[in-house]
Amino acid sequence: QVQLVESGGGxxxxxxxxxxxxxxxxxxxxxxxMGWFRQAPGKEREFVARIGSSGISVTYGNPVKGRxxxxxxxxxxxxxxxxNSLQPEDTASYYCALQRxxxxxxxxxxxxxxxxx
Length: 117
Fold this sequence. Notes:
Elements: E1 4-7, E2 10-13, E3 18-24, E4 34-39, E5 46-51, E6 58-60, E7 68-73, E8 78-83, E9 92-99, E10 104-107, E11 111-116
Parallel strand pairs: 2-11
Antiparallel strand pairs: 1-3, 3-8, 4-5, 4-9, 5-6, 7-8, 9-10, 9-11
């Protein structure tokens, strides 16, 4: 069983930056692609970014392209989401997840990001 713990969220002014981290327990982190998702109150969960198991392949959701950057350090069992030029519409709980097959099977509990205008 893999456990994921996110950190790095907080309150930031519009235009600011935050770096989220996702630490995984166990030895299987490097085997799976990792994704970041977000969910704002009253809205559906939204895809933010995905990175392949080796860290080479990356994909971004349209709202964050050019502003967010996903990365991972398999030696540290840690994934990252660098968020720049944050806007109030980026306010949400952010979750990391590992993709074992088609679905994301392992999820963290999330970290809150609030962007003030």
